[in-house]
């Protein structure tokens, strides 16, 4: 295809010079122009006038290489002027990165980071959106190009496809709109983790091993010595061992040895020798002697898998195959063949046309192969009993389908079908038919003839009316699935009974009434999430009824369902329970939560079958007395109006193990027994949010099996010591929000106690709990502790200790030494007062947050809290929930604020900069974002720019299930949108349109929008919901929370809860505690932002030019500073009130630049955002977030000193069970993890204080990027926080006690390391989950085609004002605790080796800082793109 003349550029090629400079840190490749070499000229005229195809394509060649131990980063120059001119000429121009196909063999798995290394040439091809694959192949003289999405499968591209247009379409699909931004993103190498192109099809060792093993080895036939050893060609393919009769030739006679059910054994008399034997009485045996140990192990491993099979199965799924190996056809005993998720073609020796050669094939899976048409050759395999052709984009089914008379299961889900051929009705043995997520407007009539079909799946079609008469004509149909069809009517034309149907699924439709009384054999009914007001059923055989989330006021079932065992009527409008509920004899589980019930029938509680009763969130005022002993085991009565419980509850319900009566009005609880001896079996008791006092404690003694006790937010003044000692089996105790002054010393009798939560009390003496053998978590925050008396040694099980909010607590060095092994330690530090504080610049808002892991073994929720963002009158807050993985939330926590800072330089439109922030963060997740994902919520408080007289606005963006609620005038105002398939009709329609399989069996997530999980694209997208709300004086506070919080705490209750607590931190703690007491067992995260915005509290005006003032004087009104990314004036995304240090790091590879600023490119023309200043809003300064409760609460600022997990490198390896894994103690300063270096970065940045000094110049900024060659430690500037990898720890400059810490050598070992593996986004409590079409992540290694990523040590810098202290301490090997810098000292500029300090740079006008980066240093910036 001839390109346009204006699109043609000279064909100069950039080649890597051989012998590039390498040092111990990695390698650097020097790229130079080969000025006279016209490699493209031989294939086309240099001026674009040649006749050959491929003109106008420019190729730049790079080489990507990774060091096996530390990860080498290749230094690269930018595009030259010609390349920039090419890109600027037209938005339809761009570049495509072409990777070679050579992949190194799989290295030994030394840990979860072990992965294959790509050592392939990378060529950067400048082209246009009209450049085709054919042109690119002609230019490079290759046979074809391959496309890989999300580090997964590779597909051969058609010659007519246009690679650059495919990239542009991909970027537009995930949310980018601006063509110029699309062009810029397409040139970013981070994108290769989502979409990349290969000039050859790469193959890894694991795939080769599973598909075909071959070689020439010494072979002997039989167990006797009659046969001699001979060199023969040997193959292991499918289920057979194939031995050629002639050496080095496969043309002669082939000896086939079936291995299924046989044996493979080691021959001890010979080295590297295996004996292969077939099954059966006439078994044959072959001895094979291998040349190397590697060959021996490889063959032994694969053959052992084959012989262990009970059926003759070959699984070649997820291998990017276009045809099966030709030698597979020798496995004539093959009965099950899985080719799911490949790109199988019809033609070729191993194409679909040759599959009928398998004479015994019974099961064939061809799902997700992009076939487009039904392969008619499959209809010739007459032995098939199971055929899966789901998700292939097929429009029709051929008439030849009638040939498969043995077919029993046919899956055609996820196609474009709207009718079936009549020949399908002749399949007499067909019993299961899958037609879900097609385009059928009604149930096909041909199905009436399928006399043997008992299961029909038609979810996700377009059936609006269900005729019960059609079901009656299907004489054998028992199970029908009609979810997600938009059903509006279910009609019964006659009184004819439907006798055979036993199970119907009608979830997620639009039914207003439902009468299924004619289905007299119905056993299971699912009709959740409709609009039902009336439900009528037959009760003859009914066993299970699920009818939650409707508008039911009554349910009519006749006759009484005596077989009914489980019923869910939650989230309806029931005011009473029907009489038949009490008459039913076998009901074991009854859920009637979230209704309007005012009473429960006495007969219900006295039922002899009921074991689980959930009646929370109703209007119950009392419970009837129990008349006799009942088998009740679980009773949930939370959120009612109960003033008392039945006196006989505990000694009549002797099997009761779980009782939750939180959020009622109880003043007393019933006794455990009528005598001194108690038979209670109660194990979990939740009494939070009542009016109980200390007298109730005496009544708990009888529950000697109690394991979990929550009595938070009652009126306890004390807890009797003698009573607590009786609860010897207690494991979890929550006494938060009372008026306790002490925890009894008898708590030491509870030897099994692992969790003690007693925040928000008046405790002044630390309890004697640290010597308990199983203690894991202690939360005594927001109390009045003054000192801690510790035993000589602490138990090793303690991993979290929260002592924040104790303003008078002082810790000695001995105490810190004893705390050195604690994974998460949260302490208060008092920061030095700064000029900004004295001006009251933090009086507009302050925040508090809480993160609780619940009953999970790791914390997968992270928060972002920046009280001063950018200038001193903006703020940013966020919540990130990874559900089962902790990597992605922490990555977002580290990077999202930086990304937002950069996006604000490019646009002032809220929907643009917020959307681009999410999309860029999604890209920066790199490999971690391929299989892992997280819900994300970001709130940005800023000046409204539309009107000069306006004040502040709040812009909220979110994906997933994290939510934000604003309290306005005492009422909740939701600001976010929940992207759940069950709560968003438009998202459900979008996902259905893209033919996703939505299921509850093998699904992954119910969220349709997430950051990460790019392998679920286009079903799951990163594009956020964006909403801007102007703030006013009626806005009291803002609440941010994850899914688990708002599932248990309603908007209204959350607002009312925060209104009763003045301190934002205590309010956030209370929200999380309530969620846990209401039954949440998952991670909970909450951020509370207290707003103090008054109508007359601001006199902001348009800024005037002012180039220099005394920083110690009153604040001027300067021009806003437009600083390059990474400048100290730009906040780190990890800043907030707390600097959490945690040794619980995760090991997961990220996309390049994770944890750094958003980009290393300086914007050419950023949009200057106007600002207004007043006495409350000082001039542009370094960010300085306020501590919780610092403004509007009184008292000095408090800043948290915490240890919280963070790491700039993460692993793409997943754990199968999502459990944490402990690793060995790390080397000094380094967490060695295979080939990567892990360096902690701080997350909440405790030391950001206002310093009204000059902002660092761009030269200083660029110099810092090269100052990472320190031999023993790596530093990174993060405003005024020092990040150190020297001693494997991270210390922050925060407060007056730094001098004390510097004296203690124990601080160098204060922070241990704990490595943990993530997991795939786990199934949630939802019925609608998007099914995974691709292969699950492998645990043993990363993805063989993963790009080489930049390592974190190349991103670490240090503030100039701290360089001297850092250098001295590193030289002396002293603990890494630098003192705080002078608040008004201008930063000095030093050379890259930090040894010769220069005089301080002269103060420059702020308006001159941003636009003038130093040209000489711009080439030194690392660009991981290439």
Structure description:
This protein is an alpha/beta fold and 1426 residues long. It is built from 24 helices and 69 strands. The strands form 14 sheets. The chain has a 25-stranded mixed sheet, with no helix packed on it. A hairpin with an 8-residue loop joins strand 11 and strand 12 (230-237). Helix 3 (163-174) packs across helix 4, helix 14 packs across helix 15 and helix 19 (1051-1059) packs across helix 20 (1064-1077).
Total strand segments: 69
Shape assignment = globular
Q: How big is the Rg?
A: 34 Å
| Proportion of residues in β-strands | 15-25%
Number of helices, where a helix is a run of at least 4 consecutive DSSP H or I residues: 24
* Content-based structural category: alpha/beta
Low-confidence stretches: 1-78, 103-120, 834-841, 1097-1325, 1334-1357, 1373-1426
Q: How far apart are the termini?
A: 28 Å
Instruction: Let me know the largest β-sheet.
Output: 25 strands, mixed
- What is the percent of helical residues? 10-25%
**Overall mean confidence score, pLDDT:** 74
Question: Which features would summarize this protein structure in a list?
Answer:
1426 residues, alpha/beta, 25-stranded mixed β-sheet, 24 helices, globular, disordered N terminus, disordered C terminus
Q: Mind sketching the topology for me?
A:
Layout: E1 14-16, E2 22-23, E3 26-27, E4 31-33, E5 58-63, H1 81-89, E6 93-99, E7 121-128, H2 133-140, E8 146-149, E9 154-156, H3 163-174, H4 179-186, E10 195-198, H5 205-211, E11 213-221, E12 230-237, E13 240-246, E14 249-258, E15 263-266, E16 273-277, E17 285-289, H6 293-307, E18 313-315, E19 336-338, E20 363-365, E21 386-388, E22 409-411, E23 432-434, E24 455-457, E25 465-467, H7 468-473, E26 479-481, E27 489-491, E28 503-505, E29 513-516, E30 524-526, E31 534-538, E32 544-546, E33 554-558, E34 566-568, H8 579-583, E35 589-591, H9 602-605, E36 612-614, E37 634-636, H10 649-652, E38 658-660, E39 684-686, E40 708-710, H11 721-724, E41 732-734, E42 755-757, E43 777-779, E44 800-802, H12 813-818, E45 824-829, H13 835-838, E46 845-852, E47 861-866, E48 875-881, H14 887-906, H15 910-924, H16 928-931, E49 933-943, E50 952-959, E51 963-968, E52 971-974, H17 985-993, E53 998-999, E54 1003-1005, E55 1011-1012, E56 1025-1030, E57 1035-1041, H18 1043-1048, H19 1051-1059, H20 1064-1077, E58 1084-1091, E59 1138-1142, E60 1144-1146, ...
Parallel strand pairs: 6-10, 18-19, 19-20, 20-21, 21-22, 22-23, 23-24, 24-26, 25-27, 26-28, 28-30, 29-31, 30-32, 31-33, 32-34, 34-35, 35-36, 36-37, 37-38, 38-39, 39-40, 40-41, 41-42, 42-43, 43-44, 44-45, 59-61, 60-66
Antiparallel strand pairs: 1-4, 2-3, 5-7, 6-7, 8-9, 8-10, 11-12, 11-17, 12-13, 13-14, 15-16, 16-17, 45-61, 46-58, 47-48, 48-49, 49-50, 49-55, 50-56, 51-52, 51-57, 53-67, 54-67, 57-58, 62-63, 64-65, 68-69
